[in-house]
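Write out the 3D structure for:
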Amino acid sequence: MRQLLIVDDQSILADDLADMLPWDEAGIDVVHKAYSGPDAIELMHVHAIDVVITDIRMPGMTGLELIQEIKQNWKHTKCILLSGYSDFEYTKQALKLKSTDYLLKPAADDELLTSVRRAIKELEQEWLEISSMQRAMYSLREQLPKLREYLLLDLLSGKQSISLQRLSKKLATYSIPFQEGDPFHVLLLRLNDEDRLYDDGESEGLIDYALSNMAEEVFGDQLDMWHCKDSNGFIVCLLKAKAGSTIPTDLDGWIESHAFQLQHVVKSYLKVGISILTSKGGTFPQDVNPLYQTSITNFRQFIGGERELFVSLAKEPTRGAPQLLGELYRPPSVLQMLELGQWDTANDKLEAIFREIEEEWRGSQEHVLEAYFSIAASLAALAHKNKKWLSDMIGDDFHAFANGSPINSVEDLRAWTSRSITSYQKSVNSEDKDSRSGIIRKVQEFIHGHLEQASLNSISTHVYLNPSYLSKIYKTETGEGISEYLLRARMEKSAELLAQTDEKIYEISVMLGYQKPSYFIQLFKKHFGITPQEYRNKVAN
């Protein structure tokens, strides 16, 4: 119900305005009258007034003073000034007080009604924006636990590729007390399977909720905790010291003692056993994924199916459990780069592999061998594909093991790889002088640079050859058709995009030249044996 208040010290004018105009046409349901500023204030305290029309010059309290009082106590009430004085100073003061309108007497009926309509519209818009903001903030508060959990899951999986600036903004919006550069530990909690009290998901969720609350209670006085439940069934917590905390310098020891306390209270009050693992310290956010992956691997190795164990990686031997070299198998592969002649990019990737062996595995000879055999196999495959013997292309370096000089260190591997690829590159460059080899390379480079629109016609135009002749020499030289190579290149690129980006499957389909996602999914499944979504899930897990 919209209510209007008309204020004028001339009672006849106030009565006429109140009684003679069709205020219902302007959206007004009730009209009140006051003959002075103090009377108007009194009515304002009794009724929920939406719009006030007031004269400026009134004894005791002017219209401008009345508006100022209204704005201080009823900030959403709209005020319209009505005066017979066209004094610019009044206009300036009215604007300063944010009056909805300033009308000169005698104001036409339509002018007054229009002004009130405008005031009601502004009022509705204000409250609509306020209610929308309140709904948004309420929704945000309701969803905060899930939003925090999803963000942490992204960081744990390594899929969170947003900039540090955007990450910082999300952390602040979600009220997460972590920021770039914070030292932290990863803590894994696992409820013993045989101790689960309920089979239904809802009850299991209640146990997880209770367990998380207990962990916050035990660690929360001195540590900030950010947690989620991962796909392996672990409750994963990031822990960092609160500002001004009184934790001793031996943080690992403090965490260990409180982890034992957590196991005790969970066993005492939830009647279930839990196993706990804590990681070494790391730096947020760059170490979140590496520490999480290491923690998962070590949990399986040191705890496995045992019950109610605690493991601190800070006190374990530095060797740890071996894992695959991540950079070696992350697409695009060394084989693909060398095949396309992307020498600088290949060298950058190889250097990243060598650094991983040095920094992550301290030069482990087993990882050196893993990388060596992979690189050697790539070079051999490329040589044989070009109908060459690798031993002819890289010379004595082919006999790295047979000649009594095995590769034992990262430096040995780095030097051997550099010599071998340099020899291979020289051989390839020499072969490029042969027209057919050059054509094949141009075809492959064009395909990888134009995966979306590449076709036999566009490729043949690029190399200035008849399509049928180009198909024939390509098949003769490589053993496969251009369409087969194009399909393989697109499939390999799609696997790379699925593994390393958050692009939607239909977006990847279009990027690779397939306008129908269903057709792309069909080709992908035929090529890899699983659908794109299944592949993405497999890589993520």
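Residues 109-157 form the longest helix (49 residues).
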